[in-house]
Fold this protein.
Amino acid sequence: MISRFLSFLKQPTSKQVLINTIGNYLNVIFTAFFAFFLVRVMNPVEYGVLSVLLGIAYVLANILDFGISATIYSYVPILIENDQKKLFRFLKTTFTIQSFFAFIIVGLLFIFFPWLDQVFFKTHAPWWELYLTTFSVVFLIWQNYAINLLLAAKRIFQAQLFLNLSNLLKTATIFLLTFLKIINIATVIFVFGILGPILFFLFLFFEKKHLFLKLIKAEIRKEEFKFSYTLTYFIASQFFYLGTRMDLFLLSFYFPNTPQVGYYGLSTKIILTLFASISSITQVLSPLFANLKNKDEIKPLLKKSLAYCLIPTGLFIFLFLTPDKIFFIAFTEKFSQTAAITKSLALAYILYPLANIPLLFLLYTVKKPKYILFGNLIFFIFVTLGCYFLIPIKEVYGPPAAIFLAIFVEFIYLSFISLRIKTYPKFG
C-alpha cells in the first residue's frame, strides 16, 4: 500500500498537481487572511456589500472568458509542440476577440450598473464603488487569460509564483491602507480587482518580454478562433458561474443590507477557497484529456482522475467536521452563524469534485461542449429556482439544499452521457 502511494506521488502528474496545489493554497491562505482581517475592520453589512460587489466582478470575469480557457487548454499544448508561428497567431486572435467583446459588455455594465443595483442587487453602494467594480472586471479577465495560458503550457510554477507575489504585495497594501485609516469597500475592490492583476502582468512581462514582442508582431486571423467550440462552452460556463452566485444574489434580493448576507457571503468565501484544490487538479488534468493519443488511454486517465478528485471531496468532509470553535476564533462571535452555514455548503458541494471527471472527458476528449452546456443549464435552473422558493422558507439554509440537488442532477446527467458516448474525435 505504501509503495503504491509513493509510486503515485512520483508520477509527473502528481508533481504538477502538487506544485499547482501548493500555489493555489497559498492563494487560499491569502484569501482566508483577507477575510480574517476584513471581518475585523468591517461590520457584517459592509462585508455583505463587499461580497456582493466582488462576487459580481468575479462572475463577470469568468463569464467574459467566453469559453477561451477551454480553447486554450485544447489547442495550446499541441501548438507549442508543432507550430510556434500558429501558436502566436492563435493567442493574439483569441485575446483580441475576447477583449473586444468584453469591452462591449463592460461598457453596457458601466451604463446600467446603478439601475441594476437599485432593482436587483440592492447594495445601495455609491457610484464610485460600482464603477470600480466595473473596471476591475477587465483586469481580472486579462489575468485569467494569462494564468490559463501558463498552465496550458505547463508553466505551472511561474503562474503560481507571479500570482502569489501579487498576493503578497496586495497584503502589504491592505495593511498600509488600514494604517492610513482609508480602508473601505472602494479601496479593497481597487486592491483586489485592479492592483493585483497589474502586479501579475508586471512580473509576467519582465520574465517573458521576448514572448510579448512575438505576440505583438503576430497576425490576427479569424480562422484561428474556434468559434463553435468556444461559443458553446462560453454559454455553458456562463450558466455555471451565474449558478454559483445566484444564492448570494437572491439572498441580497430577499434580505438587502442585513447581517444574513454578510454571514452567507463569508461562508461562500470559505467554500470557494476549497475550489482551489479542484482547480489545481483540473488545470493539470485538462491538457491530459486533450492530448489522449488513443482510446486505450481513456480508462487509465479516468481512474487517475478519480484518485485526484477524491482529495477535494475529502476536504469538504473535513470542513463539515471542523468544530464550531475554529470558526469563532477565525471570524469572531459577530459572525457566529458562519459555522453552521459553511457546514451546510460543504455538504452541498461534496459531489462537485467528482462531477468534474465526466465534464473533462466530454469537453476535451469527446470535444462536445454541448453536453456541458445542457448540464450547466440544469445546474443553473435547479439553483435559481431552488433558492427562489427555499430562501423565503429556510433563509440562509435554503441555498445549500438547492445547490446539492443541482450538482447531483448534473453529475448523473454528465456521467450517463459519458457512458453512452460511442464515438470519439480522431486520434492522431
